Amino acid sequence: MIMDLAADERSFLNCLLELNAYDRQLWENMQRITDVESKLVTLEQKQDKMMYDISSINEEQKALDAVVTALEKDLGLPDWTDQNHSLPVDALAATPGDVKRQQLLQLLISVDSQIKEADSDLQEIIDQVSALHKSKTAVSNSKKYTEDQVAQILKNQMETLIYVDKKTGELDAKVDEFKDVLDGRNSTLSPP
Hints:
The chain has helices at residues 2-75, 96-189. The chain is mostly helical.
């Protein structure tokens, strides 16, 4: 009987050690999840700010393009995207300043085309960020699934703790029973 009690006690202690190890691991995982979640929130805030900034830049670019196009029409200038078009400069009446202005204008045409290419590239990046944002919502759904898994694990551990508590109560009752039996034997064996 005492051997069974010792075996039950060892089994109980082993279960308790295993449960404590699971609890420690759960706690560490919860800390990691919390850290990742806070980093994700920070990244989402930065992404929202970046999307707002990009949207503002696009609106300003559109307004600027409209103003420049109106000015070009008013001045009768050719289309800036035409790289081969040369602005007319009267060679006889041209001053060195006119030549410099024409060179500067050609440089501006070149820079403008590069800016338009950069704008196109920026639009591609915006599209990619939007796609990433959509995939982030899919990740948040998987996060919910992970939270459900953690909740299930916690529920299982709570059930295990209840089971261990129940078995502990049963073991205490058996120990008290054995103690009463042994006390009864000792009192009958001892001389009056």
